[in-house]
Every structure is written in structure tokens, then in C-alpha cells.
Amino acid sequence: MGIRAVVNAPNWSESHHRGEAKCRDTSLTPTRNRDVFFEDEALALDICNGTYDGRVCPRRTECLRVAMFNKENFGIWGGMNAKDRLDMRMRYPGMPERWIWHAPGETESPSNEETQWPAAS
Ligand code: SF4
């Protein structure tokens, strides 16, 4: 049995029109020898959601949806921890159109542009 991603990771680099994923910027993750996205949940959430430097990751919604489709059970993805992603999956089972990041209390949907992302293969 192998592990297979349902959705391949998109291009997270600065060459993407939506911009570079913040987790690629090593200046934001000063802790050496560990991956904060798996070992420092609070810092990783701050980086994703902009409380670290005032800028939300431009790839956050896309990142969340990749994690949701691929059932990523560990680490911070799309500005959510594993428990929050599981809660979302249980709340909206089989409803990927609802797997979009909303700030607590936020009800508006992101722009169509933000929710476009690679189709599941
Ligand atoms: S939202 Fe995703 S792509 Fe952006 S910094 Fe967080 S983990 Fe990286």
C-alpha cells in the first residue's frame, strides 16, 4: 500500500501569479533545525494568518484545500491545525466548495480568483 496525493502540490514559488507561499521564506522561520509547520504550531499559525508580520499568506486558501483533499493529518496547512481541518471535514463532508478559509466570524467568501486551484487528479 502506498500513500498517494489526491492533489499534487502547486507551484508555491514567487513565480506563481498569487505570490510565494510564506513558508518558503526562511527569514520568517528563524528556528533552525526544525520545521515550525510541524513542531511550533503557534508560530506557524501566526505566519500563515498574518499575526506574525501583518501579512496573510497569499496562498492560504489554496493551501488549505490541498491539505483537505489530501487528508493531511499532521502539521499546519492553510492557517489551520490538524484538529481544525478535521472539524471542517466533519462539518462539511464531501463538500469541497466549503473547504475555504474563513476568519472566525467571517462569512464572506473569498473572490473567485482566490478559490481557483489545481483540479484533483
Ligand atoms: S498558508 Fe500554507 S502555503 Fe501559506 S505559509 Fe501557511 S502552510 Fe505555507
UniProtKB/TrEMBL annotation:
InterPro entries, A to Z: 4FE4S_WBL
Record-linked PROSITE patterns: 4FE4S_WBL (PS51674)
Region (Disordered): 102-121
Domain 4Fe-4S Wbl-type, residue spans: 22-87
Protein name: WhiB family transcriptional regulator
Record organism: Streptomyces vulcanius
